Amino acid sequence: MTNTENLEIAGLSVELVRKPIKNLHIGVYPPSGRVRVAAPPAISEDAIRIAVVTRLGWIRKKQREFEGQERQTERHFVSGETHFVFGKPLRLLVETSSKNRCVIQQGAAGRVTMRVPETSTTAQKARWMSAWYRGQLREHAAPRVVKWSERLAVPLPRWGIRTMKTKWGSCNPDLGIIWLNLDLAKKPLAALDYVILHEMAHFVSPRHDEVFLNVLARQMPGWRQVRADLNALPLSI
């Protein structure tokens, strides 16, 4: 059972989520630097305010980082645009077709071709491209979920793809399910591997404790650099 409310603390708008956890957690999330506090019901509001004020310098630093982070330019889905697929830039070629459907194909020489009906709108092309990205992510994530399930000796989870604004992935160990951010279809495959490993490591330990960190260190010694590289990449608008 969770309860959510908004607080004003030291000039910050803070989302407070009460949930059955052991420790208080403060997070700052892209793209706008939103501040979220997850806290157990027993912690008083005064204690929460003190915790936020104590970490005010760190919070402001993270918000400045997000503010200065590069953003992807708005896409209009016209020929000549660059679209990223698993970290590789591909030049978009848009062709019109008499058929009432869209076909997207990744070709040679760094190109992705989109064949669309003549009357297609930008919004329609955006939806078709999003569906194509979803298919690409599903194809590349499926074997990696199996791989990490075997390496970690945990049951094969159910998994799905979502549009997320603040996380690259999430998991529910109790239900045995993980979710991946659709935007991972645009990021390098090393990032996809890291996010799947990160979420599945929570089946070993639900918290970001020493057990969890040891799993990451054993399975992917350079995980911190992969995470830093992922977080430094342009954010979606």
Which helices and strands occur, and which strands form pairs?
Blueprint: E1 3-9, E2 12-18, E3 25-29, E4 34-39, H1 45-54, H2 56-68, E5 82-85, E6 88-97, E7 103-107, E8 111-117, H3 122-152, E9 158-162, E10 169-172, E11 177-181, H4 189-201, H5 210-219, H6 223-232
Parallel strand pairs: 2-4, 6-8, 9-11
Antiparallel strand pairs: 1-2, 3-4, 5-6, 7-8, 10-11
Helix pairs in contact: 3-4, 4-6
Walkthrough of the structure:
The chain has helices at residues 45-54, 56-68, 122-152, 189-201, 210-219, 223-232, and strands spanning 3-9, 12-18, 25-29, 34-39, 82-85, 88-97, 103-107, 111-117, 158-162, 169-172, 177-181. It has three domains: 3-68, no CATH class; 82-133, no CATH class; 136-232, 2-Layer Sandwich (Zincin-like). It has six helices and eleven strands. The strands form three sheets. The chain has a four-stranded mixed β-sheet. It has a four-stranded mixed β-sheet with strand order 5-6-8-7, with helices on one face. With 237 residues, the protein is an alpha/beta fold. The longest helix is centred in the middle third of the chain and has 31 residues, at 122-152.
